[in-house]
Amino acid sequence: MAGKTVTRADLSEAVYQRVGLSRTESAALVETVLSEICGCLASGETVKLSSFGSFVVRGKGKRVGRNPKTGVEVAIEPRRVMVFKPSNVLKARINGGQAHDEDDEEA
Asked: Secretion signal: which residues (predicted)?
């Protein structure tokens, strides 16, 4: 199920072909958007893209882990991790269906 990996260059080319900006302007636009998303996440903000999903930064506390080879316990320091939660629209699109509103499911 290994598919093609989409790169920044691929995104820039798609912007170039669909929006009509020059290749240089398209690349700059893609870089600006990605840079803004990275900056927001680095400062701890949530990035929510409607009909796509949310990028959330969560904190993980200090805990004790174990080396699976030796069994020796190791302290794991607290850290921040980024989690992506896809929207229902994206989930439906991936699975080839239509997105349902939560209100429709109750009826």
From this structure: none
34-51 pLDDT, tens digit each: 999 999 999 999 999 999
CB neighbour list of residue 97: distance below 8 Å, 6 or more residues apart:
none
Helix (H, G, I), strand (E, B) or coil at 76: strand
Read off the pTM. 0.74
Measured at the CA of 15, the angle between CA 24 and CA 13, to 5 degrees, comes to 65
Distances (CA, A) of 25 to 6, 12, 19: 19, 9, 10
Residue written as token pair 């080879």: 69
Shortest CA distance to 32 belongs to which of 57, 15, 50? 15
What is the torsion angle, in degrees rounded to the nearest 10, for the CA atoms of residue 85, residue 88, residue 91 and residue 93?
Answer: -140
Greatest Cα pair distance, the chain, in angstroms, is: 58
